[in-house]
Amino acid sequence: MKTGASRFFYVCGAASGGGDALGMAPHTSAKTGGMAAAPARLGTIPRMDTLLASVASFFAGFVDSIVGGGGLILLPALFAVFPGAPPATVLGINKGSSVWGTASATWQYARRVQLRWHSLLPGAALALVGSLAGAWAVTMVSPAFLKQVLPLVLLVVFVYTLARKDFGQAHAPRLHGRDEVLALGVLGGVVGFYDGFFGPGTGSFFVFLLVRWLGYDFMHASASAKLLNTASNVAALSLFAWKGHVWWSVVAATAVANVAGSLLGARLAIRHGSGFVRIFFMLVVGALLVKTASSAYF
To answer: What count of other Cβ atoms lies within 10 Å of the Cβ of residue 124?
Structure first.
């Protein structure tokens, strides 16, 4: 069992979709035997460090706005740029940056793509609640077993999408009215719970299930996933901010860069359509598969 602060920061690591799940060693404390109980002092951060983090945040926002998976770029970069910061603080910077990019991508898509707001808004609300529930659940049950399962799930997603050449090319929603509201509520709650409990691949799972279960094309699935993912990210950011694990002076720069990358990525996705998004989906899922498999088995 984890006690006190060590429980909380294990929650934060899971809620972020980073940390141990991506094979990054947790910052330990001699007093607690778990993750550090307090953030490192902010002090004076060199402008070059902030610039490097912002560049990484731009590219992360670009990838994330198309199909998710920006954490694959931003998290390793932040750990490299701020090696002395506790993981919870690095994860707080990641969420503080990406949530704005994801929200701006949602706005960009909403201007060009017809979103099914009547079904998506309840789903987004349940994604937020589910993420908080998952973060609480990880204080009671270790998510370590998912490290072994996740690569297998990603492999199924990758092979299925690769084998079905027409997968996600046509937008033909299968559910309507209350059925769609119910389905998106279940989807938001379940995947949101996963985001809070473990995290890696959340955006890709939203996209895949919106295509496979609800019949969306990749364009509409990506646009809809941004709203759902924004809600689940807000839950994680709230936890980090509550405990002071967000360096807002850094986030002010990285968030602007993330938004710029997100707007560019969303525009390219809208311009080039579902085929373009499908290619990015395959690249991101493939990268996640390699990363999670190496962390779990090697």
So the answer is: 24
